[in-house]
Amino acid sequence: MRKFYIETYGCQMNVADSEVIASILTNSDYIITNKIEEADVILVNTCSIRDNAEQRVHGRLKLFSNIKKKSPHVIVGVLGCMAERLKEELLENEKVVDLVVGPDSYRDLPTIIKTVESGQKAVNVYLSQDETYDDISPIRYDTNGVSAFVSIMRGCQNMCAYCIVPYVRGAERSRSTETIINEIKELETKNYKEITLIGQNVDSYLYVKENNKVTFANLLKQVAIAFPGIRIRFSTNHPKDLTDNVLQIMAKYNNVCKNIHLPVQSGSTNTLQNMKRGYTREWYLQRIEAIRNIVPECAISTDIMVGFCGETDSDHQETLSLIEKVGYDFAFMFKYSERKGTFAARKMKDDVPEEIKVKRLNEVIELQNKLSTISKLKDIGKIFEVLVEGVSKKSKNEMFGRNSQNKVVVFPSTVNIPGDLVKVEITKCTSATLIGKLI
Ligand code: 5AD
Ligand code: SF4
Fold first, then answer.
1. Residue 29 is part of a domain; what is its CATH number?
2. What is the C-alpha to C-alpha distance for residues 439 and 428, in angstroms, rounded to an integer?
3. Most buried residue, 158, 240, 266, 315, by most Cβ within 10 Å?
């Protein structure tokens, strides 16, 4: 048996894809290893979202060249979004690379590896209209045994002006409801306690079979009812598509976690329009209102991007004021990075100077750090149900888990095991964690 090693960069979709890849290769002639030095095949599942994500992979490829110098039989493959974006160019510019396979062509990997073994380099970057890998049972090779991602759709066609995803992941398509439910059943028998339904835009999940249409709200409800002992999360939502229906299901079912990730990107209607996001500042704030009204205990997180084409200082001030107004519990924050081929790269000028981008990003980070701390201070004295994930990295006498709001909670315990649901009273916090005691 030949051994493969896989490294994953980028979002949750890539994590889920690597689990599909592991399944495809394991069902062929390969076994997985977590030791790179043992591998006959080294695979890197890549991200193209920002230039720095790609630079990291180029750095890894240098290391793989050193490995290959010592063991020339080793095969190196680039998979995922960067493979799709750069195609043959990767073979030309990175001599170490033997194969390039895009997100919709993983079923072809065993054949492609054989081609490489016979002495040729190989590329498959075909994008499909209907591939969802729905019959493949992912292998969770890097798992805490408690929580897992379940992919419900692939691709994206929102065409935000800055975003490379539609070009590297192709058209949006939804996985069959039946195979989603079956995958969760399998996880349940393996004692998993939490699943996250993932897709680039879960709100536009739509599975049509005969005359029956399943929307995301329907799917969420079905899953909540079928698996009362499993916590359910989902990500990512799009502000233009998030319906009250989904919020009502969140509110109604206890096992649906009270946390929503709703990327805003900018607080300025002008910038949002330039970004082609399909909503205004007011619309977004009205969605936040709906969350607060329907699911009062819901935590809200977001993605924010500063320095997009044409962003003025007053646009930036609007972003800061929106962040403050919403009072996010958590945020991912980025500087705009131009991606070749996108609408913005073709039609707009990347005209915010780097030093202004840095300054704006720092302002956003500083404000959000303050809000993240406030959000945790508010939890002191509250009692949360916490799903235990493992022993704390800092001390073997402490364990950690998450509450429904997706906040990490640390508490002294030597008696619990991962997968336990415990009640913890919060006594203090750091900027990133809640600290409490078992009750
Ligand atoms: N530059 C910087 N950040 C980006 N994102 C998407 N495209 C870009 C880009 N070109 C951010 C958005 C998105 C998150 C996943 O990554 O905030 O929500
Ligand atoms: Fe990166 Fe986007 Fe691809 Fe995820 S879908 S790996 S974030 S480029």
1. 3.40.50.12160
2. 15
3. 266
Q: To the nearest whole percent, how much of the chain has pLDDT over 70?
A: 100
Give a yes or no: residue 25 inside a domain.
Answer: yes
CA of 3 to the centre of ligand 2 (A): 26
262 within a domain of the structure (yes/no) = no
Q: Quick check: CB of 303 below 6 Å from ligand 1?
A: yes
Mean pLDDT of 385-397: 95
Q: What is the pTM of this model?
A: 0.96
Per-residue b or e along 201-225, where b marks 16 or more CB atoms closer than 10 Å to that residue's CB: bbbbbebeeeeeebbbbbbbbbbbe
pLDDT in tens, 339-380: 999 999 999 999 999 999 999 999 999 999 999 999 999 999
Structure tokens at 286: 């009205």
In terms of domains, do 98 and 182 share one?
no
Distance CA 47, CA 79 (A): 9
The total number of structural domains in the chain stands at 4
Please tell me the distance between residue 427's alpha carbon and the centre of ligand 2 in angstroms.
38
Domain of 318, CATH number, reads 3.30.750.200
- For ligand 1, what atom is nearest to the CA of residue 305? 17
Indicate if ligand 1 lies below 6 Å from the C-beta of 6.
no
Structure confidence at residue 431 (pLDDT): 85
Ligand 1 centroid, distance to 201 Cα (angstroms): 14
